[in-house]
């Protein structure tokens, strides 16, 4: 085989026929593999000349060091060696020596990890979810072994209302997703107990006295591991409990199963329909031979349902405990209209709950919810937070710390002005076209209406951190011209005819409890406050509380806070007698007057 070269511009070099080892041309895409798994690439080359001769072979990225490549370590003079490249063979190279002969470049050897490839190919292509978790690690198998039925059950799509389930004791007074998840849920509850020191301390101190003996509590809250600790505490204090979920997406199915296995009448599962939601509440309330005498509500739906369907029950109900902005607002409306039949305790505006559940909790959970659903990077993003109450403050602080540019909408000109915290106060219509994320946390209705949704930029994320799903006008998006596309759990793309889309999270419902979790320690404070409020209303002598809405007494509020101090190894300073007299306080508290509060729910309904 011979090769001829045209004379170079700098110097004409006549090349002689060079005998060489004959090689069958092969494409680099079909490498030749020897028995050892080594791939050798060989290619024909067309000799070309270069106006700038190289002194050393060109080393490709990822190849071994030059010392392993050069067969002759002697450095060649400039212009005496010219590189030839065949562009159709991915850079196969040869070099012209000083005597005019052409030498082939050394063949590059690349490692083919054949063993790994073969082992990978041997893996089954179809494996069940539980088998996959087993292949990952034994510990993950141990964690999920008790819940195997819910990962690969064939009847997952069957409505729980169509199932007949019983626990190990033969009791079937519940309606949940799958009773077989109970062991897994029990472990979740045990973990939660470790982070709820105040509630566990209350259970230990009061279970001997049974302050709720005879109480029949009907509840409508988020059914999570933390709520389960509350329910079991109420039971330990003597109460009977029946429970439904206040949110169709926040129920932890395995926890509901554990509660049902433990004898609690629970009616809830994740992903309920609207009809299922009201059906579950009705099943809690409407039981022959059982009538509630206490209500624990979160959002006011349970209170509303009893008031609408079973008003005569209020004759035996001693009180209502409500923890959300929305629910408290409903109670104030009933009170103002003279329709509130029983005393109600507003625990939402207790100082400890406001600080921890609303401010500190949302400061952590807003980022968790957004990350889990959208994988968004916060740095540089423009975000508008609607409402600057305690929830809004927490959201703004977290987003600012992550490098977001934060705008705030608010109606209150004095008490909670975000300007002093470094945020720009705007109207929503001023920034709606440019922001990347819209977060509502007002407790109001129609904060983000269709007009704003139409003007949002492509890819804008829309979510709600308030309790109610009325803040974002989701109903206006269910029209024929808009397309809904489910991307992942709790994440929908709503697509306009021109191709623009927004990312709607949890269909406008509460983001953190629908799409992620909240810190257990925070819920310890809320749950302890709820338990004390139930004890107070249930045991209060007749006449102490009238048919109105009350704040939790400051003495109890401070007691809740004090129960959590040992967790941090924190120690309070005690007043001397002289100091207490000077301030006009009792040495043991309360240290704040009853009218002291961070912000009332009646003031908290912000708009844009």
From TrEMBL:
Domain of life (superkingdom): Eukaryota
InterPro entries per UniProt: Adenosylhomocyst_ase-like_sf, Adenosylhomocysteinase-like, Ado_hCys_hydrolase_NAD-bd, NAD(P)-bd_dom_sf, S-Ado-L-homoCys_hydrolase_CS
Entry keyword NAD: yes
Keyword NAD: yes
Biased composition (Basic residues): 123-132
Co-factor(s): NAD(+)
Coiled coil regions in record: none
Comp. bias (Low complexity): 46-59, 133-152
Annotated segments matching region Disordered: 17-72, 107-174
Occurrences of domain S-adenosyl-L-homocysteine hydrolase NAD binding (ranges): 358-518
Record's protein name: S-adenosyl-L-homocysteine hydrolase NAD binding domain-containing protein
The organism of origin for this protein: Esox lucius (Northern pike)
């Amino acid at each position: 085989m011979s090769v001829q070269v045209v004379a170079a511009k700098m110097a004409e070099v006549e090349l002689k026929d060079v005998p060489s080892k004959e090689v069958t041309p092969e494409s680099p895409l079909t490498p030749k593999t020897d028995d050892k798994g080594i791939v050798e690439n060989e290619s024909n080359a067309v000799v070309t000349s270069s106006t700038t001769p190289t002194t050393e072979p060109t080393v490709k990225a990822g190849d071994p060091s030059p010392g392993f490549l050069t067969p002759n370590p002697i450095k060649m003079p400039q212009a005496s060696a010219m590189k030839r490249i065949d562009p159709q063979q991915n850079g196969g190279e040869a070099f012209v020596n000083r005597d005019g002969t052409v030498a082939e470049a050394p063949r590059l050897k690349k490692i083919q990890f054949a063993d790994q490839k073969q082992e990978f190919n041997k893996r089954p292509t179809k494996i069940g979810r539980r088998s996959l978790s087993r292949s990952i690690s034994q510990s993950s198998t141990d964690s999920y072994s008790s819940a195997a039925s819910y990962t690969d059950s064939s009847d997952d799509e069957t409505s729980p209302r169509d199932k007949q389930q019983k626990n190990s004791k033969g009791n079937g007074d519940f309606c949940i997703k799958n009773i077989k998840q109970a062991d897994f849920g029990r472990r979740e509850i045990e973990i939660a107990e470790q982070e709820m020191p105040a509630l566990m301390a209350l259970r230990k101190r009061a279970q001997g006295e049974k302050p709720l003996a005879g109480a029949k509590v009907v509840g409508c809250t988020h059914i999570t591991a933390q709520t389960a600790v509350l329910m079991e505490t109420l039971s330990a204090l003597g109460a009977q409990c029946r429970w439904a979920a206040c949110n169709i997406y926040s129920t932890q199915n395995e926890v509901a199963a554990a509660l049902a296995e433990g004898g609690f009448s629970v009616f809830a599962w994740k992903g309920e329909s609207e009809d299922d939601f009201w059906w579950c509440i009705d099943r809690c309330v409407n039981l022959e031979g059982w009538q509630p005498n206490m209500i624990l509500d979160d959002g006011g739906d349970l209170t509303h349902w009893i008031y609408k369907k079973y008003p005569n029950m209020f004759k035996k109900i001693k009180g209502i405990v409500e923890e959300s902005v929305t629910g408290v607002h409903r109670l104030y409306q009933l009170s103002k209209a003279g329709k509130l039949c029983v005393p109600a305790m507003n625990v939402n505006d207790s100082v400890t709950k406001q600080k921890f559940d609303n401010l500190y909790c949302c400061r952590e959970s807003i980022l968790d919810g957004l990350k889990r659903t959208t994988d968004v990077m916060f740095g540089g993003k423009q975000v508008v937070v609607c409402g600057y109450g305690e929830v809004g403050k927490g959201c703004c602080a977290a987003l600012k710390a992550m490098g977001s540019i934060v705008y705030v909408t608010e109606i209150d000109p004095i008490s909670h002005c975000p300007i002093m915290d470094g945020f720009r106060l705007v109207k929503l219509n001023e920034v709606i076209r440019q922001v990347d994320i819209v977060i509502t946390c007002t407790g109001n209705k129609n904060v983000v209406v269709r007009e704003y949704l139409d003007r949002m930029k492509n890819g804008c994320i829309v979510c709600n951190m308030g309790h109610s799903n009325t803040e974002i006008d989701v109903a206006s998006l269910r029209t024929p011209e808009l397309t809904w596309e489910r991307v992942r759990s709790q994440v929908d793309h709503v697509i306009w005819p021109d191709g623009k889309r927004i990312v709607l999270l949890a269909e406008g419902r509460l983001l953190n409890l629908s799409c992620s979790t909240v810190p257990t320690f925070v819920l310890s404070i809320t749950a302890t406050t709820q338990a004390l409020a139930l004890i107070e209303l249930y045991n209060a002598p007749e006449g102490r509380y009238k048919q109105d809405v009350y704040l939790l007494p400051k003495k109890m509020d401070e007691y809740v806070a004090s129960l959590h101090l040992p967790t941090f190894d924190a120690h309070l300073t005690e007043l001397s007698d002289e100091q207490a007299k000077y301030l006009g306080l009792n040495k043991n508290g309360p240290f704040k007057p009853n009218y002291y509060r961070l912000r009332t729910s009646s003031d908290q309904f912000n708009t844009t």
